[in-house]
Amino acid sequence: MAVGDVTIPSTIYAIDGITLSASAAGVRYKDRDDLVIIQIGESATTAVVTTKNTFCAAPVRVLREHFAHSSPQYLITNTGNANAGTGADGIHRAKDICATLAEKTNVDAHAVLPFSTGVIGEPLNSDAIITGLDAALGALGSDNWLAAANGIRTTDTIPKLASQKIVVDGTPYHVTGMSKGSGMIRPNMATMLGFVATDANISAELLQQILVTINEQSFNRITVDGDMSTNDCCVLIATGVASSDVIDSPDHPHYQPLINALTEVFLRLAQLIVRDGEGATKFMTVKVTGGKTTQECCDVAYAVAHSPLVKTAFFASDANWGRILAAVGYAGIEDLDTEQVDVFLDEVMICHHGVVAPDYTEAAGKEVMARAEITILIDLARGSATDTVYTCDLSYEYVKINADYRS
């Protein structure tokens, strides 16, 4: 059961220049949508970031090659099989899918980017995907974001969607995106899978910069279990339909409003992944202030967010705050003055200057720990840097889901 507000937007804005479909190809399971195609208009620009996992999946290797040669016109995603750990056979199957789709749509094979998610180490049922292409292409439509968001799910319990409309100097812009991910979530990646589109007209070079920057503060600030996937990818598309005026610099007057809208969408999609973390019962914000650098704030935040002892304590609503201090201590801040560190759980100070806060009570700690959404605030008292990471607790259900995943 996902934690907190995971509602689907009341309005999911179609993006001119984008059509999508979701269909059932039978890649692994019967009678469920597992093949998603996104068609991109020829005038669009596209940006991509991918996993930093060295053992990246075959589709990631293929899409990197294709993206370096051509502007994407089709994105094709299958669920149920990651096509990872499959060697040359996996590469061949991914390329075969791209080539077949390209032939059917009269585009260059490099203009097709493949994405896969699911079980690692098993041969991809590429025949089922290729057989299902005609039906998938025939179902393309501009209003299929929800169907597509459902089609890219694996262990996700909810579809993950976000959508925004803004008007800048009389020009309406729309941003809509979807993501999938529930387990095997760790930073230094994009996300499990994320696709965001806007009708703004943004140059390719600036769009890539925007994606890298926003991704760093959204999908690269979440963790469920500390495991980086082999298949993580995130795509940002700007179709250019909203205006003929190209935004090619941060100095453009429409740049900042668009950045704000895109950031909201990305952050919402990233947080939905944590809220839907496998077996999650708590949504936890770990905010670190008073650091000398952003990096050391992140190091401390991730040490806390990755700690199984911290995560299980939150699952049990056990105010065992010593586990938080221990994680701060092994985060690698060598010259940290522990006698200056303060820690809060929401409004309750649990640690002041490295020891239990004078007014802290076990009852106050338990009351906060019982909440479904909790902020852990850690003040290092050594500088002005700050950063925030989002995570969830670790429950019995997480073990059950991952123990039964291949069954």
Mean model confidence by pLDDT = 93
End-to-end distance: 20 Å
Q: How many runs of DSSP E, i.e. beta strands?
A: 15
The unreliable regions are none
Assigned CATH architecture of the largest domain: 4-Layer Sandwich
- Summing up helix and strand content along with how strands pair, one would put the structural category as alpha+beta
Strand arrangement within the widest β-sheet reads 13-12-11-14-10-15
Number of domains: 2
Largest sheet: 6 strands, mixed
User: Helical element count?
Assistant: 12
Radius of gyration: 22 Å
* CATH domain topology of the largest domain: L-amino peptidase D-ALA esterase/amidase
Instruction: Name the helix and strand elements from N-terminus to C-terminus, one letter apiece.
Output: EEEHEHEHHHEEEHEHEHHHEEEHEEH
Fraction of residues in β-strands: 15-25%
The CATH class name of the largest domain reads: Alpha Beta
What oligomeric state best describes the polypeptide chains here?
A: single chain
Shape: globular
- What would you give as the CATH superfamily of the largest domain? L-amino peptidase D-ALA esterase/amidase
Q: Can you give the helix content as a percent range?
A: 25-40%
